[in-house]
Specification:
The structure is a single chain. The chain is an alpha+beta fold. It has 16 helices and 22 strands. Helix 1 (about 30-35) crosses helix 2. Bound molecules: 4-amino-1,4-dioxobutan-2-aminium adenosine-5'-monophosphate. It catalyses: tRNA(Asn) + L-asparagine + ATP = L-asparaginyl-tRNA(Asn) + AMP + diphosphate + H(+).
Length: about 575
């Protein structure tokens, strides 16, 4: 029997709380039709709150139900027909999608039954790394001669699936290799669900690339057998969803372990390894000895403001800011020395060139003059660059990271602090108070960077005023207002080296402690060097991450540390 359905446009509801009765009316005619049109009801409507009042001003007429007007019924019937069509389309699509999902599920179930068997009649494979191109053990196959059968292990770096073939770019930390899977090899469950970063071992024939094709080392591996070692998680957790090239900085830092899987971050780390090694080789060529000073100390080197303090069995101790003082104690018995060790600075300011923990390359030279120290530094920097670029793989990484990189030409520009002050004044670059620079100002990071970028060459900035430098720096005999000190500045980064001669006169050192308000007691071992055969000596410290930021053209030193540590970040 045809029923009556009620619609109140003011207080009705188009949700499950309404049923279309007088006491629980709907809000819209369309909703009422969607719910009841198939029963062929009649529709009664009203506007109980905003509807018309009668001639006496009595609102009672608002409460009267009236049949829905013909025009309203016609208009809403059209809308209702459209709605029905949309519904039909959606359910058709859902059926199709469900069928496809079921089919894919079935295909995957079938794929689980496909088991790859290695063809034992094939030659035993030669194990190689992905960059191995040793022609004495590997021959590339061509149209008329077979290539070497090899075995490689690595991670899926890129993946391209076509109808009959899957192309994989495998990486292993040494190089990349294009791998082609086809035939039965792509019918397994593992192949059908292959994800980036999955680790696998693959065997097959190495062949020369077809003409016009591009792949690393112009070759590709035609697989005949593989095993998946560890499938990488996919879907929402896939690496490409976790880290994206231009992703949010905090997310990238939280996922640094995954960022390191990428080409850019790993290239910087590969260059870092080469640069570290080049420093060691250069120092060895100079007959400097490697030492490992302690990281836990009870003295400061570069001012109390940046010390990390900790409790050492009830005593106050610090993480070292610099190994310099310890290196100085080695000169008498070991000759010139160096270290490559972590230094720590509690730097609360978040700049792009400050880390809380960085790798400090420090050298200390005996029986040297200030000029000799600068010449040595220039040699070390140039030799390290020369050795680094001599490796074609490293040179290629640097080229891709920093296409404009050019080794600096010698001699480096030398500029006294007073000349830098004049230069900054001439170029209207103000000091931190917004005033013209004057003698005695610490040249701030921004001004230093501006000057270095404008001069666009490496600079030895020398002879800083006594007041802005450390307690151990000797005064220049020709101008006692300044010290025999040097900062080496590089375009794009600013200061990468800080060095100086060291006071070797006992009384002068005590005066240095006093000037800086340092209690000489904990420094007794350092002071003793001035009592047991003092010598003129000097040295320097270079921040490896800053050197790399310059060489690899990175925006910040954070990209040049494996797991950067800076204010408030100690994870992962
Ligand atoms: O100029 P600094 O403070 O000099 C010294 O520590 C001397 N005692 C070194 C020595 O003569 N043996 O630091 C030396 C270099 C800087 O030029 C910079 O490259 C790097 O260490 N450095 C930092 N790198 C990253 N983050 C920081 N917070 C750094 N502080 C210094």
């Amino acid at each position: 029997m045809a029923s009556t359905i009620y619609i109140d446009e003011d207080v009705g509801r188009d949700d499950d709380s309404a049923t279309g009765t007088e006491t629980a009316p709907y809000k819209s005619l369309l909703h009422a039709m969607i719910k009841h049109a198939s029963d062929g009801p009649t529709y009664q409507t009203r506007k109980s709150e905003t509807g018309p009042v009668d001639g006496n001003g009595d609102p009672a007429s608002r409460l009267e139900w009236k049949p829905a007007s013909k025009s309203a019924l016609k208009k809403v019937s059209n809308l209702y027909e459209q709605h029905k069509k949309k519904q039909a389309k959606a359910s058709e699509l859902a059926i199709r999608e469900n069928a496809e999902a079921a089919k894919r599920q079935q295909t995957l179930e079938d794929a689980k039954k496909v088991v790859l068997e290695e063809d034992k009649s094939l030659p035993a494979p030669v194990s190689i790394r992905l960059d191995d191109a040793d022609s004495t053990k590997i021959k590339l196959g061509s149209a008329d001669s077979p290539g070497t059968r090899v075995q490689v292990s690595g991670y899926v770096h890129h993946l391209r699936s076509q109808k009959d073939v899957i192309f994989i770019t495998l990486k292993d930390g040494y190089g990349h290799m294009q791998v082609v899977l086809s035939g039965n090899l792509i019918k397994t469950y593992a192949a059908m669900t292959l994800t980036l970063e999955t680790s696998m071992t693959i065997r097959g024939e190495l062949k020369a690339l077809p003409p016009k094709a591009h792949a690393p080392l112009d070759r590709e591996l035609h697989a005949d057998f593989y095993t998946v070692i560890g499938a990488a998680i996919g879907d929402k957790e896939a690496i490409t969803n976790k880290v994206q090239q231009d992703g949010d900085a905090q997310t990238l830092l939280d996922n640094r372990h995954l960022v390191l899987r990428g080409d850019t971050a790993s290239a910087v780390m590969i260059v870092r390894d080469a640069v570290d090694f080049a420093f060691r080789q250069t120092f060895r060529e100079l007959r400097m000895r490697f030492v490992t000073p302690p990281a836990m100390v009870q003295t400061q080197v570069e001012g109390g403001a940046t010390l990390f303090e900790f409790d050492y069995y009830g005593e106050k101790a610090y993480l070292t800011q610099s190994s310099q003082l310890y290196l100085e104690t080695c000169l008498a018995s070991l000759g010139d020395v160096y270290t490559i060790s972590p230094s720590f600075r509690a730097e609360k300011s978040l700049t792009r060139r400050h880390l809380s923990e960085y790798t400090h390359i420090e050298g200390e030279l005996n029986f040297i003059t200030f000029d000799g120290l600068l010449t040595h530094l220039e040699h070390v920097i140039c030799r390290v660059i020369e050795l680094t670029l001599a490796d074609p793989i490293i040179a290629a990484h640097i080229k891709s990271l920093n296409p404009d990189f050019k080794p600096p030409s010698r001699p480096f520009k030398r500029m006294r602090y007073t000349d830098a002050i004049d230069w900054l004044v001439e170029h209207s670059i103000p000091n931190e108070d917004g005033e013209p620079h004057k003698f005695g100002d610490d040249i701030a990071e921004a001004a230093e960077r501006k000057m270095t970028d404008m001069l666009n060459v490496p600079i030895f900035l020398t002879h800083f005023p006594v007041e802005i430098k450390a307690f151990y720096m000797p005064k220049d005999a020709a101008d006692p207002r300044v010290t025999e000190s040097v900062d080496m500045l590089m375009p794009g980064v600013g200061e990468i080296v800080g060095g100086s001669m060291r006071i070797y006169d006992y009384d002068e050192l005590l005066a240095g402690y006093k000037r800086e308000g340092i209690d000489p007691k904990p420094y007794y071992w350092y002071t003793d060097q001035r009592r047991y055969g003092a010598t003129p000596h000097g040295g320097y410290g270079l921040g490896l991450e800053r050197f790399l930021a310059w060489m690899c053209g990175r925006w910040t030193v954070r990209e040049c540390a494996l797991y950067p540590r800076f204010a408030y970040r100690c994870t992962p």
